[in-house]
Automatic annotation (TrEMBL):
<keyword id="KW-0633">Potassium transport</keyword>
<feature type="transmembrane region" description="Helical">
    <location>
        <begin position="124"/>
        <end position="141"/>
    </location>
</feature>
<feature type="transmembrane region" description="Helical">
    <location>
        <begin position="208"/>
        <end position="225"/>
    </location>
</feature>
<dbReference type="GO" id="GO:0005249">
    <property type="term" value="F:voltage-gated potassium channel activity"/>
</dbReference>
<feature type="transmembrane region" description="Helical">
    <location>
        <begin position="96"/>
        <end position="118"/>
    </location>
</feature>
<feature type="domain" description="Potassium channel">
    <location>
        <begin position="159"/>
        <end position="229"/>
    </location>
</feature>
<keyword id="KW-0813">Transport</keyword>
<keyword id="KW-0472">Membrane</keyword>
<keyword id="KW-0407">Ion channel</keyword>
<dbReference type="InterPro" id="IPR003938">
    <property type="entry name" value="K_chnl_volt-dep_EAG/ELK/ERG"/>
</dbReference>
<protein>
    <submittedName>
        <fullName>Potassium channel family protein</fullName>
    </submittedName>
</protein>
<keyword id="KW-0631">Potassium channel</keyword>
<dbReference type="InterPro" id="IPR047871">
    <property type="entry name" value="K_chnl_Slo-like"/>
</dbReference>
<feature type="transmembrane region" description="Helical">
    <location>
        <begin position="33"/>
        <end position="57"/>
    </location>
</feature>
<feature type="transmembrane region" description="Helical">
    <location>
        <begin position="63"/>
        <end position="84"/>
    </location>
</feature>
<dbReference type="GO" id="GO:0016020">
    <property type="term" value="C:membrane"/>
</dbReference>
<keyword id="KW-1133">Transmembrane helix</keyword>
Amino acid sequence: MRPSTRTRRSVPSRLEILRMKLRRIERGRDQWALAWQAALAVIDVSIIAFFIFGPFLRTGPSYLIIDYIIAVWILAELFARAFATGSVTTLLRRPMTWIDLVILATLLFPDALFNFAFLRAMRLWAVGASPLFVIVLKRLGCHHFKDVARASLNFLVFLFMVTGFVYTTFFYHQGGLIGFVDALYFTVATMTTTGFGDITLPGPLGKLTSVVTMIVGISLFVRLAQSIVRPYKVLYPCETCGLQRHEIDAVHCKACGQLLNIPNDND
């Protein structure tokens, strides 16, 4: 007896199974998905390390080989995300997609687009946005440091972005080690508003770079300090007044007195 059309359609095809597995890897929280996310996180951290230490390696013969290998990997990631999403429009609405496209362009055309190589540091945000990031903090017993960890991540992303921009724009003609260290030194001195003045950036572009670095850098530094100093609170919106943050053992909302039912782990 031949199976009905309805029965045959209920069996997922291989492409549908692959799509479900890719979605599970991206958003899943089970052991299998977390193992894949951990492996991908190791690769991401290795890629970021190559981006950061790239100025030390750019004169070596293997630099372009590794550069193009990473380009192939990022392109494969983009195709996998597009296939898992099932909609190019939805994929293009994600900020990380555009970041990866720009990074991919800098990898494929390193000589022409070396001035945009500083955007490669934004790959750090992908690590912080992963479900694995929160789960690892929970398993380490550091879940209450989530805000501190993300503030530190944002600070590091901006630090290396500015360092990369300053290096490629003002110090690229110098040797890899000397130029990169000078760019990093200038960035840290400017972000902390120390301003020793022994290294300055020439021209209007240099002055504008210094202004933006000081304004954004000190804001991120203050945000990091606040997340460290202020007492730990949980995110639990009050149904009456909408207050988002409460003490972990709060019974009533301190703004309106509404009875709260904040979930806890009995610890």
